[in-house]
Amino acid sequence: MTQLDDFDRAILRILQQDNRTTQHKIGEAVNLSAPSVQRRIRRMEAEGVIRANVAVVDPAAVGLQLTIFVELELVSETPDEIDAVKKSLLNAPEVQQCFYVTGEVDFMVVVVVESMAVYEDFTRRMFFENGNIRKFRTFVSMDTIKSGSALGF
Amino acid sequence: MTQLDDFDRAILRILQQDNRTTQHKIGEAVNLSAPSVQRRIRRMEAEGVIRANVAVVDPAAVGLQLTIFVELELVSETPDEIDAVKKSLLNAPEVQQCFYVTGEVDFMVVVVVESMAVYEDFTRRMFFENGNIRKFRTFVSMDTIKSGSALGF
DNA sequence: GATGAAAAATCCGCATA
DNA sequence: TATGCGGATTTTTCATC
After folding, report:
1. Where in this chain does the record put each HTH asnC-type domain (chains A, B) (predicted)?
2. Fewer CB within 10 Å, N side or C side of chain B?
3. Which chain B residues have a beta carbon less than 8 Å from that of A94?
């Protein structure tokens, strides 16, 4: 992966806030021509620096009212077992984010669902019926203070 | 906020994966004309259903290698104290996500930084020098299994 | 909600440093 | 290798039905 220069970083900073900013406007902001901006964006997309271009949707608007953090502890931590858990979490549409972490727990999972009833059903399917889950702790979000993938740099 | 219909939801589902999909292609996919698609998108943006349009950047590419979960417990939970903590977290560029949660802890915070040294500096500034933080627990991500704001609906 | 024309943005070749 | 310019193509936008 090529090293990013200051132009690239300046472009990314704009795109992370609004990727519908025109190349012309970006060019003005960073002192580059529009085609140059577009070539850089294209290159960063090809290299995976820009992973995706997405609309951020208000979860409440689509009926998903609850954001829930779950700490997962496994019984067995062999690579195969870990992979199996990863895979099941990856495939669950309720799972919005999932990280394998160091420390007292094994996974941190962010689940977004319509209601507690749906969450309870989710835990039953994913955790209680999975012999490899030692325990899990649930933290329900009451207030979203900040929710971004905007990286401050 | 107006209720969303099936067309709106179908459009959102596409936009959450790739908001550069042309209105024409979206129209084909959902059986609507391009201008219709565009009016719906415009309306949902105005209503806040679509919160933003952003590029998702690979943190590693911009030198941010570490994703860290932090559980925060406060000493005092008066509304003023909670607000003060919220505000300081909101303004910290290292904080990518932050939720006020129920349960044994008060806040779940997702921090993204270059290195452990930077994180330690962050904890000193934000937690140790803040008299209202009773304790915090750190979970460092070793592997990002899933990282999306793509809501499965 | 659909159609079609105008406006705007993106994309591409070419010349250049 | 990367930039800027100009024009072709595509996409968005807007008026009308």
Report:
1. 4-65
2. N
3. 152
